[in-house]
Design brief:
- This protein has a 6-stranded parallel sheet with strand order 2-1-3-4-5-6, sandwiched between helices.
- The protein contains 9 helices and 6 strands; from the N terminus they run ββαβαβααααβαβαα.
Length: 249
């Protein structure tokens, strides 16, 4: 993994259904992206795998301090990473994500995925993720073609597993333990994560700032240039930031 001048590494954690290739549209310094279990080329994980397990695996395959950028599912895993391995995280970018999953909604979505298959859930997912304008231009947009291809290719069982894992995710009452510089990126057109959720998240993390983008849930795909600028500004801010007590130094 490429390192920056201060010894830290930039790591991107992707949303449900995508894989490490999703960073293709971002204009960032050397960045590594990992593929979550059951996604991309990776086989379906064991039953009962949690987001905390995903975070532990990431730490086991990396070294040194990390600046972690997580979008949607990736942001949830990033929170677990910062809580379970605070000595490994220098800073966080939490984009269009939530500290608490809705188990009823996620379990229903998992059941529907197993019943209808990935193809049967595709349009519902894309509608939650992108703006109407992006959906209308679907066939002419590389990132839309990528998202569609990845969702269609994913094993419905693995996708359902991930929805259920999100349903068990709950770090809301522990957000005050995250002691590193954190930028929360909210999409003002996000149908999956209402902006009030992101505002509350930013308010609960001691050293957090909120950036609001005119973007949907997949802000980093639909507005990659603006998203990249927000990450670069975060890295500059985090590099100048004085850590709070207990933060990675």
């Amino acid at each position: 993994m490429a390192r920056h001048s201060d010894g830290s590494s930039l790591l991107f954690l992707h949303p449900v259904g995508l894989d490490r290739r999703c960073i293709e549209w971002l204009d960032l310094p050397p960045v590594r992206a990992v593929t979550m279990p059951g996604h991309g080329e990776r086989e379906r994980a064991r039953l009962g795998l949690t987001l905390a397990d995903m975070a532990d695996e990431i730490v086991g395959h990396s070294t040194g301090p990390l600046d972690v950028v997580g979008a949607s599912l990736g942001g949830m895993v990033a929170m677990h990473l910062a809580l379970a391995h605070p000595d490994r995280v220098r800073s966080l970018v939490l984009a269009c994500t939530t500290p608490r999953g809705d188990s009823a909604v996620m379990n229903d979505r998992a059941d529907a995925t197993e019943d209808k298959g990935s193809a049967g859930m595709l349009e519902d997912t894309l509608t939650r993720w992108f703006t109407p304008a992006a959906l209308e231009a679907d066939r002419d947009t590389p990132y839309m073609a990528y998202a569609r291809e990845r969702l269609l290719a994913m094993d419905p069982g693995a996708l359902a597993d991930t929805w259920r894992a999100i349903g068990t995710h709950d770090v809301l009452e522990r957000l005050g333990e995250i002691r590193v510089p954190t930028t929360c990126i909210a999409g003002m057109r996000d149908l999956s994560t209402p902006i009030d959720v992101m505002r509350d998240l930013a308010a609960r993390v001691p050293d957090a700032r909120l950036v609001e983008m005119d973007a949907p849930h997949m802000a980093f795909l639909e507005r990659p240039r603006e998203f990249s600028v927000a990450v670069l500004e975060h890295l500059a801010w985090a590099g100048e930031h004085t850590p709070t007590e207990g933060a990675l130094r």
